[in-house]
Structure formats: C-alpha cells, structure tokens
Amino acid sequence: MKVSYKSDWTYWILILIPFSYLAFIWSDLPERVVMHFNIDGEPDKWGNKTNLVLVPVLLPLISYLVMLFIPVLDPRKKIEQMGNKYRQLMFIIVLFTSALACFIIYTASRGAELNTHIIFGLLGLLFMFMGYFFQTIKPNYFIGIRTPWTLESEEVWVATHRWSGKIWIAGGLLMVAAAFVTKEKIALAAFAGVVVLLSMVPLVYSFIKFKELEKSGH
After folding, report:
1. pLDDT, tens digit, for every residue of 79-132?
2. What mean pLDDT, rounded, does the chain reach?
3. What tens digit of pLDDT does each residue of 155-211 get?
4. What's the 3-state SS for the chain?
5. Which of 66, 91, 170, 206 could cross-link with 160 by S-S, CB 3.0 to 4.6 Å?
6. Which residue in 18, 48, 21, 15 sits closest to 34, CA to CA?
7. How far is CA 175 from CA 19, 149, 189, in A?
8. pLDDT at 4 > cutoff 60
9. Are the CB atoms for 35 and 108 separated by under 8 Å?
C-alpha cells in the first residue's frame, strides 16, 4: 500500500469539513468557548476560540496521517495484504472523527451541555463496524486484538477475531441503545460496562483458545 496524498481526495474532503465549518461560524463565535465538560456533560473549562482549531487537527487529520503511515511501518507488510478492507477501516475512522469534530465544535460554540447520547450513538456505530472488520482482519502488529496468544498463533488470532467480531457488533448495538436512555448516569454506566466487556472478554477467550490448541498438540 503506497502512501499517497493526491489519490486520497475523499479523505481530505472529510478532513476539511470540520475546518470549513469552523471557518464558516468563526465570526459568530464568542472569544471564550467551552473547552472541557465534566462527567455530567456540563461545561467546566473555558478557553480562547482559537483553541478550537486543534479539534479537527487532533481528530480527523491526525487519525488520517497515522493510518496512512501504519502500513509503511508494518515490518511484515501484513496490512498491505488487507487491501480494500484496510481502506474501508481508514475511511470509517476518518468519517467518525470528522463527525465528532463537527459535533464538538458545534457544542463548544454554543456553550451548551455536551449531549453524551450522540457520542454513545456514534461510538456504537463505530464499534459495530469494528466488529464486522475484525472478522476478516489478518494477523498484524498494529490493528486488532493483539494479545500474547493471538500474536503467537495465527489460528488463535483468526478464531479470536471471528468470535470477538460478533461480540463487538452486539456491544455496538447496546451502545446505540444506551443513546436512547434518558438518564445520563445510567447511559454512562451501561456504556462503561460494555467497553470493559469488549476489552476483557476477547483477551480471556484468546487465552482459553490458545490453551486448548496447546493441549491438542497444535
């Protein structure tokens, strides 16, 4: 996979959307805007509006550049073998971070409370896509469920990602459902619980699968 800036015009359009949105509303922005929200989604830190420029820089732009150069750093070139699958993942990540940047700029510009329900919904959709992507991902050092056991055995890697992909899709659906829960703290607790499960369950599964194969002589 060659590094290319000119051919990735669709990504650059997504990256430029939050920059363009910020430029469009710039003259209407107050000098002080919200820079941080507490756990209840209430503004608790304010700063100069020029700080908002960092939002699209740190989200879609940095995400794009990191994913652009990951294949270059891959010593075994496994990511290159993914072809369109990796490009799909890259597109979704840039799309997600661009939408998130626009949402953050919009919320900060209005000085309103952060609508965590929208965040939960966006993250849920992202987790669902990642679950779909996991089921086709090949062993590599950068993306996926990288435990000592998945990196040791390709069979464990494939089994773990196929099984975990379904779990992540289900978890993403739960996150989307949490977006419709009216009470913020209940929705946040549900979201945190799902994230913990999606992190820990694949790790345990990969260990168990590795031990099973070890006992069977594989």
Report:
1. 877 778 888 899 999 999 999 999 989 888 876 667 778 888 889 999 999 999
2. 86
3. 999 999 999 999 999 999 988 887 787 677 777 788 888 899 999 999 999 999 999
4. CCCCCCCCHHHHHHHHHHHHHHHHHHHHCCCEEEEEECCCCCEEEEEEHHHHHHHHHHHHHHHHHHHHHHHHHCCCCCHHHHCHHHHHHHHHHHHHHHHHHHHHHHHHHHCCCCCHHHHHHHHHHHHHHHHHHHCCCCCCCCCCCCCHHHHHCHHHHHHHHHHHHHHHHHHHHHHHHHCCCCCHHHHHHHHHHHHHHHHHHHHHHHHHHHHHHHHCCC
5. 206
6. 48
7. 28, 28, 11
8. no
9. yes
Structure tokens at 21: 């949105």
Q: ∠ at Cα 128 (157, 7), nearest 5°? A: 85
